[in-house]
Design brief:
InterPro entries: CFA20/CFAP20DC, CFA20_dom, Oligosacch_biosynth_Alg14
Pfam families: Alg14 (PF08660), CFA20_dom (PF05018)
Distance between the termini: 85 Å
Protein name: CFA20 domain-containing protein
CATH superfamily of the largest domain: Glycogen Phosphorylase B
CATH class of the largest domain: Alpha Beta
Number of strands: 21
GO biological process, one term: dolichol-linked oligosaccharide biosynthetic process
Number of domains: 2
Mean pLDDT: 82
Helix content: 25-40%
Strand content: 25-35%
Keywords: Membrane, Transmembrane, Transmembrane helix
Radius of gyration: 25 Å
């Protein structure tokens, strides 16, 4: 009897080990949707470090007929970053809503897209997980996946929704529609996770979201110093003039001047204007709280600025490898460069109209102080100028490489 009990125990133990191994070492069939423009860029950033060879059996990339450039962008990104992939197949579907299309007319196009997607996905019944970051095309896909499961046409496909980085206070329309049906709903800002209780705040990329078991979120990280713990690669925007709240992380100081959003006639779009009789008393500073720091490690500061033919200056504070805070101040009214222990002032030339100012913080820190750049602590922009966007990048990108939302849509004169 004892021998039989031991034998049963050993068989149960071995069976459990095999079951756990099959569960956690299973390779998944993954469907990833690429939307237009910024959606594709954010998804590529999320996919950059994921071990597809180890975790995936088949990968299906999906895009709409209208997004003809997305496969080329994805292929170039995969090649440039040397991402190893198993078998990949592209799936093309109809878009549910075109840019600037009215919501009323989009009902019909969404129904057509849903029917087309239903027929297409009948060929792919082995999907384990669907990943999307919110382009409108994702709505028909989710409807079809759920409908086919309820009709016993396919096994259950888990849905991972990753909200866009630009959504700070409210969810996107796609996010609101899929909030209750997603198996995992990931947001990139802690403020959203507090407002939407089902959302999970994760400042990590896909490896964190899908490590070990693809359906379990691990290592959720609390945000500390602004961008300190966030994944930093490619582009990191700190001001976008057409955003819902462009100055959300900025503090304003105004005396005999104004800081307001206006429409620039040259680009026919909203921009932020900083004007004042004295440049030193009219400015914006990020972060707004003087006790906080940005913690941005990307070495290139890029600003799309319009020359108003008045005095203009900006200042950046960085931390070097000697743990010393250094300031760099550039002005269009200064003629010589002066290096002091804690501040370096330098001249700046702006061409007429819109300019793209590219500031290599790593190079300036090394040349001015002989030390290595660690991170950016603060940014301060003074009067007089108009601002389209301020962002950091890991390298200098050509106009062709920039995502559409980072372009001015004008020929830009580059400044060193």
């Amino acid at each position: 009897m004892l021998t039989l009990s031991i034998l049963i125990f050993l068989l149960a133990y071995v069976g459990l080990r095999f079951w756990l191994a099959s569960k956690y070492n299973k390779k998944y069939n993954m469907l990833i949707l690429f939307g237009s423009g910024g959606h594709t860029y954010e998804m590529l950033m999320a996919l950059r470090n994921y071990d597809f060879q180890q975790k995936c059996q088949n990968i299906y990339f999906m895009h709409s007929f209208a997004d003809t450039q997305e496969p080329l962008r994805v292929a170039k990104f995969i090649e440039d970053n040397k991402i190893a992939l198993p078998k990949v197949e592209w799936i093309t579907i109809h878009r549910s809503r075109k840019v600037k299309q009215s919501y009323l007319s989009s009902i019909i196009t969404t129904l057509k897209a849903t029917l087309h997607t239903f027929l297409i996905l009948l060929r792919f019944r082995d999907l384990d997980i669907f990943i999307t970051n919110g382009p409108g095309t994702c709505i028909p896909v989710v409807i079809v996946l759920i409908a086919q499961y309820l009709l016993f046409i396919r096994k259950r496909c888990k849905i991972l929704f990753i909200e866009s980085w630009c959504r700070v206070e409210n969810l996107s329309l796609s996010g609101k529609l899929l909030y209750w049906v997603s198996d995992k709903f990931v947001v990139n800002w802690e403020s959203l996770s507090k407002k939407y209780k089902r959302a999970t705040f994760v400042v990590q990329q896909l490896n964190c979201w899908m490590s070990c078991d693809i359906y379990i979120l691990l290592n959720q990280i609390k945000k500390q110093l602004m961008f300190k713990n966030s994944f930093q690669s490619g582009f990191l925007s700190i001001l976008y003039s057409i955003g819902s709240k462009p100055l959300q992380i900025w503090d304003k100081q105004i005396k005999n001047g104004h800081i307001k959003r206006i429409t620039d006639q040259d680009i026919q779009s909203s921009v932020l204007e900083i004007m004042g009789t004295n440049v030193s008393t009219n400015f914006i500073t990020a972060p707004a709280d003087p006790k906080e720091t940005l913690g941005i490690k990307l070495p290139f500061l890029v600003m799309i600025i319009k020359n108003l033919k008045k005095y203009f200056t900006f200042e950046v504070q960085v931390l070097d490898d000697k743990n010393v805070r250094r300031r760099f101040r550039a002005s269009n009214y200064q003629s010589t460069t002066r290096v002091k222990p804690f501040i370096c002032t330098m001249p700046m030339r702006l061409d007429e109209g819109w300019n793209q100012i590219q500031f290599n913080l790593s190079d300036f820190t090394r040349r001015a102080y002989g030390t290595n750049y660690i991170e950016t602590l603060r940014v301060q922009i003074h009067a007089n100028c108009r601002i389209r966007r301020i962002y950091f990048s890991d390298r200098l990108y050509s106009e062709e490489e920039l995502p559409p939302e980072f372009k001015l849509f004008l020929p830009i004169q580059k400044q060193g």
